[in-house]
Amino acid sequence: MDILIKKSVLAGAIAAPPSKSLTHRYLVLAALKSGKTTINNPLICADTLRTIDALERLGVKIKRRRRAITVHGTGGKFTAKNAKLFLGDSGTSLRLILGVAALCKNPVFIDGSKRLRERPHAKLLKILEQQGAKIQYLKNRRHAVRPERSGRAQALQINAPFCVSSNEVKAHHSIPLIISSNGIKGGEVAVPGNISSQFISSLLMIAPFARKKLKIKITGRAVSKGYIALTLNAIRKVKNSSLITVEGDFSSASYFMALSLLTGAKIRIKNLNKKSVQPDGIISDILEKPLNNAEINISNCPDIALTLGILGPKFGITLIGVKRLADKESDRA
User: Fold this and answer.
1) Would you give the DSSP letter of residue 249?
2) Mean pLDDT across 19-28
3) pLDDT per residue as tens digits for the range 219-251
4) Phi, then psi, of 322 in degrees rounded to 5
5) Phi and psi of 250, rounded to 5°?
6) Which secondary structure element, helix H or strand E, spans residue 306, and what is its range?
7) For the purposes of burial, counting CB atoms within 10 Å of the CB of 3, is it exposed (0-12), middle (13-18) or buried (19 or more)?
8) Could you tell me where the DSSP H helices lie in 105-249?
9) Is the pTM of this model over 0.70?
């Protein structure tokens, strides 16, 4: 297929797509709380559909309408039997759903794409095991949960051999796996802050269901701290309201901001919250300052790295704090 791109004049207004990070969080938090929650303006995409599918397979009743999703919360009680989850490439889905699965008495089978298997999850899994979760790591990955053409998970071959000895699983600690639990114990847990803030977000979401107060101690330098704040803000919102609206996504809007800067076009971006706690909201401040030969640390806002990379050749921008980009859906470093 040939695509012809013609020179044109850029101008006008565009609505920023809803935030994917917030959509994931609101869905999981709504499933965990008691009662009904309606989420307006959610982002419907491959990753959020993975979260929706996983929650439904865990027994959560979810009703989708054109511009809203209604979630019937479980109060942290998930009764589905033999749930089989396939989470594709979505790291956020996996890490948040792992926390939810640690509340499930019945075994939950979890798998994802080849790339998702390669991404770092070990520390979160070890913490969940310390908290009482029983996790079996599938030794023969060819027998793991496989997606149907629709992307949903199909039946698992139960005759797959499992890694059950600590020596065998020491170097594994990843999907595919089977997890079950009688709940989490609570107490103090140490979480390294330099791998992924999603480990902390997952634990924060399930903390209210711990038998003892869960105290999370972040060790080392925390990366993506803004996403921890985003989770805490989402927890407060879902706790205090049964009607939530997903605000516009700053990382998606950043491309149009950069386009305006590069071309001089006047582009109005709607659906953005000036008071947002989204880490990528810092893009507005960055672009308002002189960019020539600027050094920008993106360790707390990695999702705007690509936008700043596009601007780099023109302004001579140097990006630092890029190490974690190697652990994303693809190696962005």
Assistant:
1) P
2) 98
3) 988 777 899 999 999 999 999 999 999 999 999
4) -95, 0
5) -70, -35
6) helix 305-315
7) exposed
8) 114-118, 122-130, 166-169, 197-206, 225-240
9) yes
